[in-house]
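Researcher: We're teaching a course module on how sequence relates to structure. For the next exercise, students receive a sequence and then see the predicted structure as C-alpha coordinates, so they can try to spot secondary structure elements on their own. Here is the exercise chain.
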Amino acid sequence: MNPSIYVVLAGDDMLKIPGEYINAYRSIPGYIIVGSRKHAAIKPCHWLEQKLFTGRRGCYKEKFYGVKSHLCIQNTPVLYFCTHRCLFCWRVQPSDLGLSWKESSLEGFELDDAIHLAEEMIAAQKRMIQERYSIDRLLTNYENMIKILEVLLKERRAITGVQIAEKAEISRRKFREAAEHLLREGLIAEAGGGRYILSKDVEEVAESTDDLEDLVKRRVANPADIRRVHREALEPKHAAISLAGEPLLYPQIGELVEEFRRRGFTTFIVSNGTLPEALENISREPSQLYITLPAPNEKIYLEVCRPLIERGWRRLMRTLELLDTLSCRTVIRITAVKNLNMVKPEEYAKIIENANPHFVEVKGFTYVGGARRRMGDYCERMGYPRERAFELFQPRHSDIVEFSRKICEYGGFEIINEFVPSAVTLIDVNWGKRSTKLVPA
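Model: And here is the predicted structure for the students to work with:
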Protein backbone atom coordinates (compact mmCIF):
# COMPACT_ATOMS: atom_id res chain seq x y z
CA MET A 1 0.00 0.00 0.00
CA ASN A 2 1.36 3.38 -1.01
CA PRO A 3 1.51 5.58 2.12
CA SER A 4 1.27 8.70 -0.04
CA ILE A 5 -2.20 7.58 -1.10
CA TYR A 6 -3.66 6.07 2.07
CA VAL A 7 -3.14 6.46 5.77
CA VAL A 8 -4.28 3.34 7.61
CA LEU A 9 -5.47 3.84 11.19
CA ALA A 10 -6.25 0.19 11.95
CA GLY A 11 -5.06 -3.29 11.11
CA ASP A 12 -7.84 -3.97 8.64
CA ASP A 13 -6.87 -2.68 5.20
CA MET A 14 -10.48 -1.70 4.56
CA LEU A 15 -10.23 0.97 7.25
CA LYS A 16 -8.37 3.78 5.58
CA ILE A 17 -8.52 7.50 4.94
CA PRO A 18 -7.17 8.88 1.66
CA GLY A 19 -3.89 10.67 2.21
CA GLU A 20 -5.10 13.48 -0.06
CA TYR A 21 -7.74 14.31 2.51
CA ILE A 22 -5.32 14.47 5.43
CA ASN A 23 -2.93 16.53 3.32
CA ALA A 24 -5.78 18.90 2.46
CA TYR A 25 -6.10 19.74 6.15
CA ARG A 26 -2.35 20.02 6.59
CA SER A 27 -2.31 22.60 3.79
CA ILE A 28 -5.01 24.80 5.35
CA PRO A 29 -3.37 27.63 7.31
CA GLY A 30 -3.74 27.19 11.05
CA TYR A 31 -4.64 23.50 11.30
CA ILE A 32 -2.23 21.57 13.51
CA ILE A 33 -2.84 17.81 13.50
CA VAL A 34 -1.98 16.30 16.89
CA GLY A 35 -1.65 12.91 18.55
CA SER A 36 0.01 9.67 17.53
CA ARG A 37 -2.93 8.48 15.39
CA LYS A 38 -3.39 11.88 13.68
CA HIS A 39 -7.17 12.05 14.01
CA ALA A 40 -7.26 15.16 16.24
CA ALA A 41 -6.35 18.79 15.63
CA ILE A 42 -6.22 22.28 17.05
CA LYS A 43 -6.53 25.57 15.19
CA PRO A 44 -6.15 29.17 16.36
CA CYS A 45 -9.38 31.00 15.60
CA HIS A 46 -9.72 34.55 14.29
CA TRP A 47 -10.48 35.84 17.78
CA LEU A 48 -7.45 34.30 19.43
CA GLU A 49 -5.36 36.14 16.82
CA GLN A 50 -7.24 39.37 17.44
CA LYS A 51 -6.70 39.12 21.19
CA LEU A 52 -2.98 38.45 20.77
CA PHE A 53 -2.45 41.29 18.30
CA THR A 54 -4.47 43.88 20.20
CA GLY A 55 -4.38 42.70 23.80
CA ARG A 56 -8.09 43.44 24.10
CA ARG A 57 -10.35 42.30 21.24
CA GLY A 58 -12.14 39.06 22.18
CA CYS A 59 -14.93 36.93 20.74
CA TYR A 60 -18.60 36.64 21.60
CA LYS A 61 -17.86 33.80 24.05
CA GLU A 62 -15.81 36.27 26.05
CA LYS A 63 -18.66 38.79 26.07
CA PHE A 64 -21.43 36.25 26.71
CA TYR A 65 -19.75 33.78 29.07
CA GLY A 66 -16.41 35.20 30.20
CA VAL A 67 -14.30 32.74 28.18
CA LYS A 68 -11.07 34.61 27.43
CA SER A 69 -10.21 34.23 23.75
CA HIS A 70 -6.46 34.02 24.32
CA LEU A 71 -6.89 31.20 26.86
CA CYS A 72 -9.01 29.03 24.56
CA ILE A 73 -7.88 25.93 22.63
CA GLN A 74 -10.16 25.35 19.64
CA ASN A 75 -9.90 21.63 18.99
CA THR A 76 -11.44 18.41 17.75
CA PRO A 77 -10.72 14.76 18.58
CA VAL A 78 -12.32 13.62 15.28
CA LEU A 79 -11.12 15.84 12.45
CA TYR A 80 -12.11 13.46 9.64
CA PHE A 81 -15.44 12.14 10.95
CA CYS A 82 -18.99 13.46 11.11
CA THR A 83 -22.57 12.26 10.74
CA HIS A 84 -23.57 15.27 8.63
CA ARG A 85 -22.41 16.90 5.43
CA CYS A 86 -23.94 20.31 6.17
CA LEU A 87 -24.00 22.81 3.34
CA PHE A 88 -23.00 25.63 5.69
CA CYS A 89 -20.11 23.86 7.47
CA TRP A 90 -16.61 25.34 7.11
CA ARG A 91 -15.16 21.81 7.30
CA VAL A 92 -13.56 20.47 4.14
CA GLN A 93 -15.74 17.44 3.47
CA PRO A 94 -14.49 14.36 1.58
CA SER A 95 -17.14 14.85 -1.10
CA ASP A 96 -15.69 18.32 -1.76
CA LEU A 97 -12.56 16.55 -3.00
CA GLY A 98 -14.31 13.65 -4.75
CA LEU A 99 -13.35 11.25 -1.93
CA SER A 100 -15.46 8.92 0.18
CA TRP A 101 -15.32 6.46 3.07
CA LYS A 102 -17.54 5.71 6.03
CA GLU A 103 -16.91 8.97 7.86
CA SER A 104 -19.87 8.60 10.25
CA SER A 105 -18.26 5.87 12.38
CA LEU A 106 -14.92 5.29 14.11
CA GLU A 107 -15.61 1.61 14.74
CA GLY A 108 -12.43 -0.40 14.17
CA PHE A 109 -10.09 2.57 14.12
CA GLU A 110 -7.20 2.76 16.54
CA LEU A 111 -7.53 6.01 18.49
CA ASP A 112 -5.39 8.02 20.85
CA ASP A 113 -6.58 7.88 24.44
CA ALA A 114 -7.96 10.96 26.18
CA ILE A 115 -4.91 11.56 28.39
CA HIS A 116 -2.61 11.62 25.37
CA LEU A 117 -4.91 13.89 23.36
CA ALA A 118 -5.32 16.44 26.15
CA GLU A 119 -1.56 16.60 26.67
CA GLU A 120 -0.87 16.88 22.95
CA MET A 121 -3.47 19.61 22.39
CA ILE A 122 -2.19 21.75 25.25
CA ALA A 123 1.44 21.30 24.18
CA ALA A 124 0.60 22.13 20.54
CA GLN A 125 -1.25 25.28 21.62
CA LYS A 126 1.73 26.49 23.64
CA ARG A 127 4.16 25.81 20.77
CA MET A 128 1.88 27.60 18.35
CA ILE A 129 1.70 30.71 20.57
CA GLN A 130 5.48 30.77 21.01
CA GLU A 131 6.38 30.13 17.38
CA ARG A 132 3.57 31.54 15.23
CA TYR A 133 2.59 34.44 17.48
CA SER A 134 5.86 35.36 19.12
CA ILE A 135 5.89 38.48 21.29
CA ASP A 136 8.33 40.05 18.82
CA ARG A 137 5.85 39.58 15.97
CA LEU A 138 2.99 41.07 17.99
CA LEU A 139 4.94 44.13 19.12
CA THR A 140 6.35 44.65 15.62
CA ASN A 141 2.79 44.75 14.33
CA TYR A 142 1.99 47.46 16.89
CA GLU A 143 5.03 49.46 15.77
CA ASN A 144 4.01 49.03 12.12
CA MET A 145 0.62 50.56 12.86
CA ILE A 146 2.38 53.68 14.14
CA LYS A 147 4.63 53.76 11.05
CA ILE A 148 1.65 53.56 8.70
CA LEU A 149 -0.09 56.41 10.49
CA GLU A 150 3.11 58.49 10.43
CA VAL A 151 3.36 58.11 6.65
CA LEU A 152 -0.27 59.08 6.11
CA LEU A 153 -0.02 62.02 8.53
CA LYS A 154 2.99 63.31 6.64
CA GLU A 155 1.45 62.78 3.19
CA ARG A 156 -2.05 64.05 4.08
CA ARG A 157 -3.37 62.49 0.88
CA ALA A 158 -4.50 59.11 -0.37
CA ILE A 159 -1.64 56.82 -1.44
CA THR A 160 -1.41 53.12 -2.26
CA GLY A 161 -0.58 50.39 0.17
CA VAL A 162 2.58 49.66 -1.81
CA GLN A 163 3.69 53.28 -1.41
CA ILE A 164 2.91 53.25 2.31
CA ALA A 165 4.88 50.03 2.81
CA GLU A 166 7.87 51.46 0.98
CA LYS A 167 7.83 54.76 2.87
CA ALA A 168 7.34 52.95 6.21
CA GLU A 169 10.10 50.49 5.28
CA ILE A 170 8.00 47.41 5.99
CA SER A 171 7.00 44.47 3.81
CA ARG A 172 3.68 44.42 2.00
CA ARG A 173 2.55 41.46 4.10
CA LYS A 174 3.31 43.32 7.32
CA PHE A 175 1.55 46.38 5.93
CA ARG A 176 -1.61 44.36 5.29
CA GLU A 177 -1.43 42.76 8.73
CA ALA A 178 -1.16 46.10 10.54
CA ALA A 179 -3.55 48.01 8.25
CA GLU A 180 -6.33 45.51 8.99
CA HIS A 181 -6.51 46.69 12.61
CA LEU A 182 -6.32 50.39 11.69
CA LEU A 183 -9.12 50.00 9.13
CA ARG A 184 -11.36 48.11 11.51
CA GLU A 185 -11.05 50.75 14.25
CA GLY A 186 -11.46 53.62 11.79
CA LEU A 187 -8.03 55.24 12.09
CA ILE A 188 -7.45 54.92 8.35
CA ALA A 189 -9.90 54.53 5.46
CA GLU A 190 -9.83 53.03 1.98
CA ALA A 191 -9.91 55.61 -0.80
CA GLY A 192 -10.30 53.32 -3.85
CA GLY A 193 -7.75 51.95 -6.23
CA GLY A 194 -5.79 50.26 -3.46
CA ARG A 195 -5.20 53.63 -1.79
CA TYR A 196 -5.54 54.58 1.87
CA ILE A 197 -5.98 57.85 3.70
CA LEU A 198 -5.91 58.99 7.29
CA SER A 199 -9.39 59.21 8.77
CA LYS A 200 -10.67 62.75 9.14
CA ASP A 201 -11.11 62.54 12.91
CA VAL A 202 -7.50 61.34 13.27
CA GLU A 203 -6.19 64.05 10.96
CA GLU A 204 -7.99 66.67 13.00
CA VAL A 205 -6.48 65.69 16.36
CA ALA A 206 -3.06 64.21 15.51
CA GLU A 207 -0.07 66.47 15.03
CA SER A 208 2.81 64.24 16.11
CA THR A 209 3.95 60.66 16.56
CA ASP A 210 3.04 60.93 20.24
CA ASP A 211 -0.54 61.80 19.27
CA LEU A 212 -0.68 58.81 16.93
CA GLU A 213 0.66 56.45 19.58
CA ASP A 214 -1.91 57.70 22.05
CA LEU A 215 -4.72 57.07 19.53
CA VAL A 216 -3.51 53.54 18.80
CA LYS A 217 -3.18 52.72 22.50
CA ARG A 218 -6.69 53.99 23.24
CA ARG A 219 -8.49 52.61 20.21
CA VAL A 220 -6.57 49.65 18.81
CA ALA A 221 -3.80 48.04 20.86
CA ASN A 222 -1.55 48.68 23.82
CA PRO A 223 1.93 47.08 24.17
CA ALA A 224 1.42 46.48 27.89
CA ASP A 225 -1.82 44.58 27.19
CA ILE A 226 -0.19 42.63 24.36
CA ARG A 227 2.65 41.48 26.63
CA ARG A 228 0.23 40.46 29.39
CA VAL A 229 -2.10 38.58 27.04
CA HIS A 230 0.78 36.77 25.35
CA ARG A 231 2.16 35.66 28.72
CA GLU A 232 -1.26 34.43 29.85
CA ALA A 233 -1.90 32.63 26.54
CA LEU A 234 0.95 30.25 27.30
CA GLU A 235 -1.23 28.78 30.07
CA PRO A 236 -4.60 28.08 28.36
CA LYS A 237 -7.65 27.47 30.53
CA HIS A 238 -10.51 26.59 28.18
CA ALA A 239 -11.07 23.84 25.60
CA ALA A 240 -13.63 24.49 22.88
CA ILE A 241 -14.26 21.03 21.45
CA SER A 242 -15.84 22.46 18.35
CA LEU A 243 -13.34 22.78 15.51
CA ALA A 244 -14.65 20.18 13.04
CA GLY A 245 -16.33 16.79 12.94
CA GLU A 246 -18.80 15.38 15.46
CA PRO A 247 -17.02 15.14 18.85
CA LEU A 248 -19.46 12.65 20.36
CA LEU A 249 -18.16 10.09 17.86
CA TYR A 250 -14.97 9.95 19.92
CA PRO A 251 -15.65 7.11 22.37
CA GLN A 252 -13.63 8.75 25.18
CA ILE A 253 -15.21 12.18 24.90
CA GLY A 254 -16.19 12.20 28.59
CA GLU A 255 -12.69 11.17 29.57
CA LEU A 256 -11.28 13.98 27.39
CA VAL A 257 -13.48 16.49 29.22
CA GLU A 258 -12.27 15.04 32.52
CA GLU A 259 -8.62 15.31 31.49
CA PHE A 260 -9.08 18.99 30.68
CA ARG A 261 -11.00 19.51 33.93
CA ARG A 262 -8.19 17.92 35.95
CA ARG A 263 -5.85 20.49 34.44
CA GLY A 264 -8.04 23.39 35.54
CA PHE A 265 -9.86 23.88 32.21
CA THR A 266 -13.46 24.69 31.48
CA THR A 267 -14.89 22.96 28.39
CA PHE A 268 -17.45 23.48 25.66
CA ILE A 269 -18.69 20.66 23.42
CA VAL A 270 -20.48 21.58 20.19
CA SER A 271 -22.48 18.64 18.83
CA ASN A 272 -24.89 18.15 15.95
CA GLY A 273 -27.13 16.10 18.24
CA THR A 274 -27.29 12.91 16.16
CA LEU A 275 -25.77 10.66 18.85
CA PRO A 276 -28.14 10.78 21.85
CA GLU A 277 -26.84 7.43 23.10
CA ALA A 278 -23.34 8.89 23.43
CA LEU A 279 -24.71 11.82 25.41
CA GLU A 280 -26.73 9.50 27.65
CA ASN A 281 -23.57 7.54 28.50
CA ILE A 282 -21.05 10.37 28.70
CA SER A 283 -18.82 9.88 31.75
CA ARG A 284 -18.18 13.58 32.38
CA GLU A 285 -20.34 16.45 31.16
CA PRO A 286 -18.65 19.57 29.81
CA SER A 287 -19.00 22.99 31.41
CA GLN A 288 -21.37 23.87 28.59
CA LEU A 289 -22.98 21.74 25.89
CA TYR A 290 -24.06 23.18 22.54
CA ILE A 291 -26.51 21.33 20.33
CA THR A 292 -26.89 22.67 16.81
CA LEU A 293 -30.47 23.09 15.60
CA PRO A 294 -29.96 23.59 11.85
CA ALA A 295 -33.58 23.61 10.71
CA PRO A 296 -37.13 24.11 11.98
CA ASN A 297 -38.36 20.78 10.56
CA GLU A 298 -37.18 17.53 9.03
CA LYS A 299 -37.67 18.57 5.41
CA ILE A 300 -35.33 21.54 5.71
CA TYR A 301 -32.96 19.51 7.89
CA LEU A 302 -32.50 16.92 5.14
CA GLU A 303 -31.80 19.63 2.58
CA VAL A 304 -29.35 21.55 4.78
CA CYS A 305 -27.51 18.77 6.64
CA ARG A 306 -27.49 15.86 4.15
CA PRO A 307 -27.15 13.35 7.04
CA LEU A 308 -24.91 10.31 6.79
CA ILE A 309 -26.80 8.61 9.60
CA GLU A 310 -30.30 7.10 9.54
CA ARG A 311 -33.15 8.92 11.32
CA GLY A 312 -30.93 11.94 11.89
CA TRP A 313 -33.81 14.30 12.66
CA ARG A 314 -35.38 11.89 15.16
CA ARG A 315 -31.99 11.45 16.80
CA LEU A 316 -31.57 15.21 17.08
CA MET A 317 -35.01 15.56 18.67
CA ARG A 318 -34.11 12.80 21.14
CA THR A 319 -30.92 14.63 22.06
CA LEU A 320 -32.88 17.83 22.67
CA GLU A 321 -35.20 15.88 24.98
CA LEU A 322 -32.13 14.94 27.06
CA LEU A 323 -31.06 18.53 27.75
CA ASP A 324 -33.28 18.90 30.79
CA THR A 325 -31.68 15.81 32.36
CA LEU A 326 -28.13 17.19 32.24
CA SER A 327 -26.40 19.02 35.06
CA CYS A 328 -24.21 21.17 32.79
CA ARG A 329 -25.29 24.39 31.16
CA THR A 330 -26.98 23.90 27.79
CA VAL A 331 -27.24 25.98 24.63
CA ILE A 332 -29.12 25.43 21.40
CA ARG A 333 -27.15 26.92 18.51
CA ILE A 334 -29.02 27.94 15.37
CA THR A 335 -26.54 28.43 12.54
CA ALA A 336 -28.67 30.81 10.50
CA VAL A 337 -28.31 30.86 6.72
CA LYS A 338 -30.24 33.49 4.82
CA ASN A 339 -32.59 32.11 2.17
CA LEU A 340 -32.04 28.58 3.47
CA ASN A 341 -33.02 27.90 7.09
CA MET A 342 -34.03 31.35 8.41
CA VAL A 343 -37.71 30.45 8.04
CA LYS A 344 -40.60 29.35 10.26
CA PRO A 345 -39.50 31.00 13.51
CA GLU A 346 -42.63 29.62 15.18
CA GLU A 347 -41.39 26.05 14.59
CA TYR A 348 -37.95 26.87 15.99
CA ALA A 349 -39.65 28.40 19.03
CA LYS A 350 -41.72 25.27 19.65
CA ILE A 351 -38.67 22.99 19.50
CA ILE A 352 -36.76 25.31 21.84
CA GLU A 353 -39.65 25.49 24.27
CA ASN A 354 -39.85 21.69 24.45
CA ALA A 355 -36.07 21.29 24.89
CA ASN A 356 -35.86 24.02 27.54
CA PRO A 357 -32.11 24.85 27.26
CA HIS A 358 -30.56 27.59 29.34
CA PHE A 359 -29.74 29.68 26.27
CA VAL A 360 -30.17 29.88 22.52
CA GLU A 361 -27.55 31.41 20.28
CA VAL A 362 -28.66 32.53 16.83
CA LYS A 363 -25.41 32.87 14.90
CA GLY A 364 -25.06 33.97 11.31
CA PHE A 365 -23.53 31.58 8.79
CA THR A 366 -20.06 32.63 7.65
CA TYR A 367 -19.02 32.16 4.03
CA VAL A 368 -15.63 30.54 4.68
CA GLY A 369 -13.76 27.27 4.16
CA GLY A 370 -15.52 24.37 2.50
CA ALA A 371 -18.85 26.21 2.67
CA ARG A 372 -17.73 28.51 -0.13
CA ARG A 373 -17.71 25.70 -2.69
CA ARG A 374 -20.84 24.01 -1.39
CA MET A 375 -22.92 27.19 -1.17
CA GLY A 376 -21.66 28.19 -4.62
CA ASP A 377 -22.83 24.85 -6.01
CA TYR A 378 -26.16 25.22 -4.21
CA CYS A 379 -26.50 28.72 -5.65
CA GLU A 380 -26.11 27.36 -9.17
CA ARG A 381 -28.66 24.62 -8.50
CA MET A 382 -31.10 27.35 -7.48
CA GLY A 383 -30.51 29.08 -10.82
CA TYR A 384 -28.21 31.90 -9.67
CA PRO A 385 -24.57 32.65 -10.55
CA ARG A 386 -22.29 31.10 -7.92
CA GLU A 387 -20.58 34.44 -7.33
CA ARG A 388 -23.82 35.62 -5.71
CA ALA A 389 -23.56 33.02 -2.92
CA PHE A 390 -22.15 35.42 -0.33
CA GLU A 391 -24.84 38.00 -1.02
CA LEU A 392 -27.66 35.44 -1.00
CA PHE A 393 -26.73 33.32 2.00
CA GLN A 394 -24.61 35.24 4.54
CA PRO A 395 -26.91 37.22 6.85
CA ARG A 396 -26.12 40.63 8.29
CA HIS A 397 -26.25 41.18 12.02
CA SER A 398 -29.53 43.07 11.58
CA ASP A 399 -31.00 39.98 9.87
CA ILE A 400 -29.97 37.84 12.85
CA VAL A 401 -31.50 40.26 15.33
CA GLU A 402 -34.77 40.40 13.39
CA PHE A 403 -34.99 36.61 13.14
CA SER A 404 -34.12 36.21 16.84
CA ARG A 405 -36.89 38.62 17.78
CA LYS A 406 -39.41 36.58 15.82
CA ILE A 407 -38.36 33.40 17.64
CA CYS A 408 -38.64 35.24 20.96
CA GLU A 409 -42.10 36.55 20.12
CA TYR A 410 -43.39 33.04 19.45
CA GLY A 411 -41.63 31.47 22.45
CA GLY A 412 -41.84 34.20 25.05
CA PHE A 413 -38.03 34.38 25.27
CA GLU A 414 -35.75 37.39 25.59
CA ILE A 415 -32.62 38.56 23.76
CA ILE A 416 -30.14 39.36 26.52
CA ASN A 417 -26.94 40.02 24.55
CA GLU A 418 -25.54 40.38 21.05
CA PHE A 419 -22.17 40.63 19.35
CA VAL A 420 -22.17 42.52 16.07
CA PRO A 421 -18.78 41.37 14.64
CA SER A 422 -19.92 37.72 14.71
CA ALA A 423 -23.59 38.38 13.87
CA VAL A 424 -24.84 36.49 16.94
CA THR A 425 -27.49 36.99 19.59
CA LEU A 426 -27.89 35.35 23.00
CA ILE A 427 -31.42 34.41 24.04
CA ASP A 428 -32.45 33.57 27.61
CA VAL A 429 -34.76 30.55 27.69
CA ASN A 430 -34.28 28.99 31.11
CA TRP A 431 -31.52 30.98 32.73
CA GLY A 432 -33.87 32.99 34.90
CA LYS A 433 -31.57 36.00 35.25
CA ARG A 434 -29.20 34.17 37.54
CA SER A 435 -26.28 36.06 39.06
CA THR A 436 -23.78 35.32 36.30
CA LYS A 437 -23.45 33.81 32.83
CA LEU A 438 -19.75 33.12 33.38
CA VAL A 439 -18.64 29.56 32.76
CA PRO A 440 -18.48 27.66 36.06
CA ALA A 441 -15.07 26.36 37.12
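Model: If you want an answer key for the exercise: Residues 141 and 177 are 7 Å apart (CA to CA). The two ends are 48 Å apart (CA to CA).
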